[in-house]
Write a structure and sequence with these properties.
The chain is built from 12 helices and 15 strands. The chain has 454 residues and is of the alpha/beta class. Strands 5-4-3-2-1-7-6 form a 7-stranded parallel β-sheet, with helices on both faces. It has a 5-stranded antiparallel β-sheet with strand order 8-9-10-15-12. Helix 5 crosses helix 7 and helix 5 crosses helix 12. The structure holds alpha-D-glucopyranose. Alpha-D-glucopyranose (GLC) binds at residues 53, 64, 66, 213, 255, 271, 278.
């Protein structure tokens, strides 16, 4: 019989190595997710960001980049808009103040859209505000400075595709310049140009967040997504990436479609236009009302996400009045309700309250966002085990009476809690009620069974 003993020792040793290894990868994973949570903290708490689409498309008031890509206008005529891009009434400090007053904690600006027109002084390519428009100056630099002065985080939107650049593959929907496989050197020239621009943005503006767009035109390998991320984290390891990097980002970016169900992603941000266009279009007057914007915003908060609300300044740098008013109205509401906006988490399921809700981080305060006041002035909470210590109106402290109905002494069912809304101190948009619980929220999850005792 063969002697297996010497092998047993080896097998045991190997087993130990594998075990230790799996412990250390687990520990590493834990550490990574902890670090990730740390870097995402400001984003998670920010709740509101302002998106800015500013480019030559504002001159004619046509759709950004897509108007020539889709052949509604020739590329040549599209580029003629550069001549009207004056920025002559551009006041970056006013923009930053408006953003600050809206209650937003970050702003994301189109440094370059798919059309390739860059807002900053880049030494890569000729299509930019300094060299090819009457603005003749770096338009990004003073805005970033103004944002920093207002303590607003800086996000750089950067389009991966550049449909105007001669070494880029796509030109319009019907014209493709070449295939990468046919001419990899040409593609490399494009990448050098594009990475060069990103490096400039990184070094000059050190963005807190990169908002990429257009990743659908090439795969992760072709774009070199990993190299891009390495390049951009070199200066700022805590920089945040949206996921339009073939999914290799930090948070999900639903566009226009307000999630109906709470997304599974821990971090997400809905980008939304204030009318139906990203950039300025004088013919688009289909603006959302402040009530509707706040509806959307509250919905995002209650589902654990952020809202990135878009504005499209005019070619001279003024912000359209409707957009200015929207942000101002939004600001009135956010200023009063800060307690229930920043530092809160997603709320509880609608089964417990017919409306959007949020929870304080320690989950001992439940915030109810009340849009319309019921006829009898009462709102009901269902299936909450906690006792209510106090309930008050956020922003003015008026306290509310409450009483519990249908709480049988023999059952674990917690009853219906009715809160009496005050007759006065009702907000124009949403009245927010803070419900202080006797501890961490405990939701009642019943198994509807037969009654056992009565
Ligand atoms: C889209 C469009 C673009 C717009 C962006 C904003 O992907 O390509 O025009 O800037 O969404 O989210």
């Amino acid at each position: 019989m063969r002697n297996y003993k010497p092998y047993l020792g080896k097998v045991f040793f190997l087993f130990l190595v594998v075990l230790l290894n799996s412990f250390s990868t687990k520990a590493q994973k834990k550490e990574d997710s902890l670090m990730h949570a740390q870097k995402m903290e400001w984003f998670k708490e920010a709740k509101l960001g302002i998106f800015i689409h500013w480019g030559i498309y504002a001159v004619n008031g046509i759709s950004e980049s897509w108007s020539f890509f889709n052949n509604y206008i020739s590329h040549e005529d599209y580029l003629k808009q550069t001549r009207g891009f004056t920025a002559k009434n551009y006041k970056p400090e006013d923009w930053a103040r408006l953003i600050k007053n809206s209650g937003a904690k970050y702003a994301v600006i189109t440094t370059k859209h798919h059309d390739g027109f860059a807002l900053w002084k880049t030494k890569y390519g000729n299509l930019n505000a300094v060299r090819s428009s009457p603005a003749k100056r770096d338009l990004l630099e003073p805005f970033v400075k103004a944002l920093r002065n207002e303590n607003i985080k800086v996000g750089a939107y950067y389009s991966l595709p550049d449909w105007s650049y001669p070494d880029y593959t796509e030109f319009t929907r019907t014209k493709k310049r070449y295939q990468i496989q046919e001419d990899p050197k040409r593609w490399q020239r494009f990448l050098d140009y594009s990475y060069g621009q990103m490096k400039e943005l990184r070094d000059q503006f050190n963005p807190d967040l990169w908002w990429f767009d257009g990743d659908w035109e090439h795969n992760a390998e072709e774009w070199g997504i990993d190299s891009i991320k390495t390049l951009l984290t070199q200066k700022n390891p805590a920089v945040i990436f949206n996921s339009r990097l073939r999914g290799k980002g930090d948070y999900a970016t639903p566009e226009i479609g307000l999630p109906v169900y709470r997304p599974k992603d821990l971090y997400w941000e809905l980008c939304m236009t204030s009318n139906d266009s990203w950039g300025f279009q004088q013919n688009d007057t289909n603006y959302k009302t402040p009530q509707q914007v706040i509806d959307i915003f509250v919905d995002c908060i209650s589902k654990g996400g952020n809202l990135l609300l878009d504005i499209g300044p005019k070619a001279d740098g003024t912000i359209p009045e409707e957009q200015y008013d929207l942000l101002t109205q939004l600001g009135k509401w956010t200023k009063k309700h800060g307690e229930a906006i920043y530092n809160v988490e997603a709320g509880i399921p609608y089964q417990h309250f017919y409306g959007p809700t949020a929870l304080s981080k320690d989950q001992t305060i439940l915030y109810l966002y009340v849009r319309d006041i019921p006829k009898d002035g009462k709102i009901a909470l269902k299936g909450i085990h906690n006792k209510i210590n106090r309930a008050y109106v956020v922003g003015n402290g008026v306290t509310l009476n409450h009483h519990v109905l249908s709480k049988p002494y023999w059952s674990a069912y917690p009853g219906l809690i009715y809160l009496d809304l005050p007759k006065t101190s009702i907000d124009e948009y949403y009245t927010v009620i803070a419900v202080l619980l006797d501890g961490k929220i405990r939701l009642y999850k019943e198994q509807q069974g037969a009654i056992e005792s009565n």
